[in-house]
Amino acid sequence: MTGCAELINTGRNAAGEQLRVLADLQRLADRYAFAGSKGQLADLAAVRGYRARLDAIAVGCEAGRQAAAISQLNALLAQTGATPQIAEHHGRGPHIHVSSAGSPLADRMAAHFAMGLVWLVVAGQAGRLRSCASAGCSDVFIDLSRNRSRRYCDSKTCGNRTHVAAYRARKASGNDDTAARPSPAAGRAGPAGRAGPAG
Q: CA–CA separation, 126 vs 64, rounded Å?
């Protein structure tokens, strides 16, 4: 599922298209250990098309349009010729390959990533697909928090950036009351502040 989000985000990036050349696609495929033949030039355009469809499915899941997402996923799996099978190779134990190693790379990637979304939908967890709440980011991510409360693709970058911007806006408008707010320890006298016994 992480790979699916990463693929979708290559088309959502504010800097523009992230799958510019075949080498970009191959690096993504290698990162997720896709077995089989290397990518061909035709795979680049095909993956971009599949990416748009996976993005539309993610948007549907986030919006709660489950029936539409199911229909789109079934169509995508059929088009890519998905044939789930158990495989063992390169020292890896049994795992699922969604398509045969001889299928074009674009079909293998789309089928595999679609199947990840299928598992989310079937498990009733489609709502865990989210878009980043940061104003400067539209990345999709999988919210794996226990209470589904995650709002940012990365709390260390987008989350902090949003909180800092909100703090600065409050300071600029004069609505920041943190300076006037007493610290939690204020008003509590420590041992040195206690009056001793009358003598």
A: 8
